[in-house]
Amino acid sequence: AQTVTQSQPEMSVQEAETVTLSCTYDTSESDYYLFWYKQPPSRQMILVIRQEAYKQQNATENRFSVNFQKAAKSFSLKISDSQLGDAAMYFCAPNAGGKLIFGQGTELSVKP
Amino acid sequence: GAVVSQHPSRVICKSGTSVKIECRSLDFQATTMFWYRQFPKQSLMLMATSNEGSKATYEQGVEKDKFLINHASLTLSTLTVTSAHPEDSSFYICSARDFGGGANEQFFGPGTRLTVL
């Protein structure tokens, strides 16, 4: 069975600073995608960034980047220049076999 | 593009009644849709995978007779909670997969808050 672990239930960051959210997973698939989703108080799931497992290069989307370590099955999210609007619940979700398996989530608060 | 809608956004019903939730992909065709359940402060739990024109595949522990799923067209899937009870109160989220977009990405609806009295 696939498992996903987000070991940080809550994180806090000062506005304009950088924060890293951790995620480890376990899968038997060799080819898969990994996603980070953001869920603000509205509860709408928003895609933050995606990574293809066969690509060694870490994905980057503006202020968001990942550190993907395939052998270690680690997929952390770095948010640079944090903004108040980044405050939300963040979920790590590998997609293997066509299904998303969500981690427990990390609630990120941003202090002005 | 890639917009998914859900209706209703919020519903309150009496115990023992049935409630239907609709999930629509507005600007793409979705051969596969997914239904999730989320309790407060918790993660999303996959309930079932819905494929157009065929029976849904339910995750272990999800009662298929309790949660009826129909995916009759490429843009619409429905979840019916039958004989609802207070413990069925939760936030239900659907998503749709656009194969044309690649990456197996799922696009999420805004969710439906169900309260059973």
Walkthrough of the structure:
The complex is a heterodimer of chains A (112) and B (117). In chain A, strands 2, 5, 6, 10, 11 and 12 form a 6-stranded mixed sheet that branches. In chain A, strands 3-9-8-7 form a 4-stranded antiparallel sheet, with no helix packed on it. Chain A has strands at residues 3-5, 10-14, 19-21, 24-26, 33-39, 46-52, 60-61, 64-69, 74-79, 88-96, 99-100, 106-111. In chain A, strand 8 (64-69) and strand 9 form a beta hairpin. Chain A is mainly beta. Chain B is mostly beta strands and 117 residues long. In chain B, 0% of the residues lie in helices and 52% in strands. Chain B has no helices and 11 strands. Chain B has strands spanning 4-7, 10-13, 19-25, 32-38, 44-51, 57-58, 67-73, 76-81, 90-97, 106-108, 112-116. In chain B, strands 2, 4, 5, 6, 9, 10 and 11 form a 7-stranded mixed sheet that branches. In chain B, strand 4 (32-38) and strand 5 (44-51) form a beta hairpin. The model of chain B has no long low-confidence stretch (mean pLDDT 92). The chains are: A mainly beta (112), B mainly beta (117). The A-B interface holds A 33, 35, 37, 42-45, 47, 50, 52, 91, 95, 98-105 and B 32, 34, 38, 42-46, 49, 91, 93, 95, 97, 103-106, 108, 110-111.
